[in-house]
Amino acid sequence: MRRRVGEDAVDAALALTEFAQASHLLAHAVLPPAAALRRAAAVFALCGLHRALALAVNPAFFGCERYTEIAAVLEELGSDLGSDDLLAAAGVLAWSGDAKGVYDLLREARDRALDETRSFLAVGALERLARHARAFGDFEVARGAVDEALSLAATRSLPAWRLRCIAAAAQIAVDQDDLDRSGELLDEAAAAAPAADALALLAPAGAAYALLTGDSASAARWSGTATLDAALASQDPAAAIAATAAALAFAGAVPPAGSRLALAVRRALACAESVSDTVEFLGLVARWGSFDQARYAVDVLHAILRPNRRYVEAHWLLARAHLRLREGNRSGTVDSAGDAARAFDAIGLRHWTNEAMLLLVRNDGVADAAPRRRPNAISLTRREQQVAHLIRRGASNREVARTLQISEHTVERHVSSILSRLGLRSRWQIVDTPLQNGAET
């Protein structure tokens, strides 16, 4: 006869972020079926397993599109209402796009968890808040939540949760071009000698940091055999997907069929589920996966779009641009890349804006088959237009140079020419000046 376990054992597993173990223990816990489902729903919400959450959560939640509606359902629980219910409710409400409602529920879950002396759930609620806010494009909310989670994990001695929060914080820092902070967080995590799965969760931010800074030591740390091993062997879906994303980012090419990386991509696609944890991975698959995988990744990104998920939408547009390029549709590539650049710029993500603009300018000359006109006093060459477009989005000369892969001195020459042609005195006047199509340089 199997020995039944108590709730304490489930909580102990959650405190170590061992979600699979917690789910297994719940199957043998001494709990009424309804209570076990409520606890399971919280576990699935914490680790972003949306399909499992849909099977375990209170069916009444599915009729709720706004916070007020889901709050009315929760109120019916009366004194039985706990942090588990609030976590699950937030996970479901996120599907509707009520960002503020999701944030409010997760903050309530944090407060209720602290009242229940379950600090690990309070940290988990904040970490989830950061990830949802990132998907919604609310980076100030995301950074505030993850900073609070890091502090709480440290004061409550929850090292496993702190590492998980460092992974989220480092990725947010990379998104916002705060490479100093990202580097500090990654160094702190690496110094803690984390287990393989925790290291895998850090790999996407580590890979992005290494590629953006050209740091060879970071590249060796985050692109080694251990990363690919985790992609192929980890039993944690989030860790497997994160490791695969890092390996794909470093590969920079479609992996050969049958290679370890190609197998890892197939495995990660099969277990990809969480919207807030797979956006960048799906974008990389659109660029570097097989052609069929690329189409699938773009379709999945489009399918998971919900109102207000601005970060997800921007990545879908960028993924669609890469897919159109692979289809040979350069005009469509330019259109989608421009849409992606505007979407990223709207949420203040300069690094991603520049990446979309780089894709645009590399293909713009090929896409535009219209007759070229020689430059005159009020028109710009095509290269000058590209420089002006980046300046209008707030790029510095260094960022323009990096995006267009030219020297800063060349950028300065183009800026001087733009000012002269348009009769302007300052580069900042370019922002408010309409541009005309000109000739190719």
Features:
24 helices; Arc Repressor Mutant, subunit A; Serine Threonine Protein Phosphatase 5, Tetratricopeptide repeat; disordered C terminus; 441 residues; mainly alpha
Mean pLDDT: 87
What level of helicity do the residues show? Answer: over 70%
Counting DSSP H or I runs of 4 or more residues, the number of helices is: 24
Question: Total strand count, please?
Answer: 0
| Poorly predicted ranges | 366-377, 437-441
Quickly give the CATH architecture of the largest domain. Answer: Alpha Horseshoe
Straight-line distance between termini: 80 Å
Predict the CATH topology of the largest domain. Serine Threonine Protein Phosphatase 5, Tetratricopeptide repeat
Number of domains: 3
- SSE order, as H and E? HHHHHHHHHHHHHHHHHHHHHHHH
* Sheet with the most strands, sense and barrel status: none
Strand-residue proportion: under 5%
Kindly describe this structure.
The protein is mainly α. The chain has three domains: 1-194, Serine Threonine Protein Phosphatase 5, Tetratricopeptide repeat (Alpha Horseshoe); 226-302, no CATH class; 370-432, Orthogonal Bundle (Arc Repressor Mutant, subunit A), CATH 1.10.10. Helices cover 71% and strands 0% of the residues. It is built from 24 helices and no strands. It has helices at residues 7-15, 19-26, 33-46, 50-56, 67-75, 83-93, 99-115, 119-136, 139-155, 159-175, 179-191, 196-213, 216-222, 225-233, 237-251, 260-271, 275-288, 291-303, 310-326, 330-346, 350-367, 382-392, 397-404, 408-422. The longest helix is centred in the first third of the chain and has 18 residues, at 119-136. Residues 366-377 and 437-441 have low confidence and may be disordered.
